[in-house]
Each structure stands twice: as C-alpha cells, then as structure tokens.
Amino acid sequence: xxxxxxxxxxxxxxxxxxxxxxxxxxxxxxxxxxxxxxxxxxxxxxxxxxxxxxxxxxxxxxxxxxxxxxxxxxxxxxxxxxxxxxxxxxxxxxxxxxxxxxxxxxxxxxxxxxxxxxxxxxxxxxxxxxxxxxxxxxxxxxxxxxxxxxxxxxxxxxxxxxxxxxxxxxxxxxxxxxxxxxxxxxxxxxxxxxxxxxxxxxxxxxxxxxxxxxxxxxxxxxxxxxxxxxxxxxxxxxxxxxxxxxxxxxxxxxxxxxxxxxxxxxxxxxxxxxxxxxxxxxxxxxxxxxxxxxxxxxxxxxxxxxxxxxxxxxxxxxxxxxxxxxxxxxxxxxxxxxxxxxxxxxxxxxxxxxxxxxxxxxxxxxxxxxxxxxxxxx
Length: 378
What we know:
Elements: E1 20-24, H1 25-42, E2 45-46, H2 50-53, H3 56-64, E3 70-72, H4 75-83, E4 88-94, H5 98-107, E5 112-117, H6 120-133, E6 137-142, H7 156-166, E7 171-177, H8 189-212, E8 219-222, H9 228-234, E9 239-240, E10 270-278, E11 284-287, E12 302-303, E13 309-314, E14 319-323, E15 335-339, H10 343-347, E16 352-357, E17 364-370
Parallel strand pairs: 1-16, 2-9, 3-4, 4-5, 5-6, 6-7, 7-8, 8-9
Antiparallel strand pairs: 1-10, 10-11, 10-15, 11-14, 12-15, 13-14, 16-17
C-alpha cells in the first residue's frame, strides 16, 4: 500500500507533514531550463537520467523542454516510464536474466528501447528476446572509459562486439555508451576535466575503429551533472545523460569551479522537510528525519540557510543537529529543511514528491507527484 501524501494541494508549506520530499518548483524549473538552453545552444541531445527522479511526471517536464527521452538503470524503471507515457527509454546498463530481458523486449512494442552490452552473452539473450517479441532493440556497446566498472575495453574489443550486435537478428547497433561515473565527483575542476579528456581518448580510438569497420555511431552517450560541459568540449559525445542536475544535492555542491570555489550552475531544488521532535539539551536538537528519510552514502545532509547548525548524525528515525555558538535556538515543532547528501537514493526512500511554488518558507503546495519507480530495482 502506498502511503497517503504528506500534504494537500493548496496547503502552506508549514502544513506539510514530515519527513517529506519537497521540490522547490521554481528552482527545479530553472534547472531544467538551464540544461535545455545548453542543449539548444550546443546542438547536443540531452537524455536525462531517470534513476535520479524515478518519476514520469518529472520526465515529462524534461521532455517538454526538448529532451529526446530518458535513460535509467533497471528494467523496472523503464517499465514505469513507458507505462507513464514516455516513448523513448535507454536502459544505460547491462541486463542479465531471461525474465528481465523478456520484460525489456516487451516494452519495445510500445516505445523506442535501448540497452547496453559489454559481452556477447548479453547480446545473444537480447536477440532471442527481441525475436520472440517480434521487436527491435537498440544496443549500445559500453566501453570502459576509466570508471573500472562495466564496459568492454575500448578499440578492437568494442568493434568485435558491435559486429556481433549487427549480425544478430532483432538487434540494431546504436553506438557507444561512454559514461565516466566516478569522474562526476572529482572535486578539482582541472582534475575532473582531465578524467574526461582521458575518457575522450578511448571514445576517439573506438569510434575511429568502428568507422573503419563500416559502423556508424548514431549515439555516443554518457556524461553527467558533474562533467557534461567537458564531454561537450571534446566534440565526440552527441548525447548527454545528466540526472542530478534537476534537483542537485549536497555532494555535487562540493565540486569546485575553475577558480577553486565550491560552485555549481544548478540550484538546490530538492529538500527533506523535517520537524524538531526533541530539544532536551542546550546546543542540540533532534529532527524526525534520519537514515530512512535521507541517504548518507555521500555524506550527511546539510541544513538549508542555517550555517549555524550542522546535521551531526543519523539513526533510523532521528537526525541529531548540533547548534553552533550563538545559533538561534531550535524548539519543538520548528521546521528544518535538509539538503540530501545524495539525491538518487534519497528519492528512493519516499513515496511522494510535494511540489511547492513560491519558496520553502512562504510557498504553497502546487502538486503531488508519486515517486512511481520507487523500489524498481529489477
């Protein structure tokens, strides 16, 4: 059973039950508009990553601004997107398991479906499923561009896999997946760019060898919120896959710009609304948002516009705040807005988005969107 939403349309923000996942719609829309303008100005396609938001409602907002489709990591996420009316979805991951591959192929009856491969065994399974479903699947060869996670080695091994895809009935060779995930959070601007320059060498070598073998890469995809400008500078990638840009989080905000300052071109637009539930000792307060409300794998949340207060630790249902010297006292029932350390898994902890117009303090609830793909991990 899905829990009831923590607010009603028309409520003031102080009426939102907590903990709740809240979108500042004004900041959110400015983030979408910035990425859309970048895509328009550069002529490079944007395919936002739905593993961040897990919501057809958010996906539609992005596509209304020109995004070509969505990408995601799991078949379950793709199913939710397609069922929600999204007609172009890339699973930017390898899918293994007969049931999952069959589900993926079934989606291709209703939408353009892409998927990645780094092994002939995957390709064989994709082809068999596509033929049974009487559909086409578009397959990208994922190459390892430095993340040391998934991906076949660049160059000749990638060409061999592309040949296998092209020779497999039911499949279409689409191009390359070249995402450097671990580069997204390299703090230094110069070091982050250097990681993408190295990735670009792998892309360049592979695309040249593919061209020599007669293959056209309709898509060279990758890039994320922390690096998309660097991929664009190379002139090699023609499809960008940023996810967190729509909401941002505390970890991305720690990346440095070219002057060495913590700065990002996007705004914080996603918050966990929380309430002080205990203030029994001087210098300390406890809120109702702990591990089950905000992910801490990339660090603890920070407090919005309260530099005098830090989030000192989390338990399952408790978040302990430390008040600095001279900090304004927090009392029972006071509202605190948390900026998640890592937005993607934080979203996956909630059933609902509460969309607020007019700011966090004095705004009004404008919409309620289900986190439709919450828990879609298969």
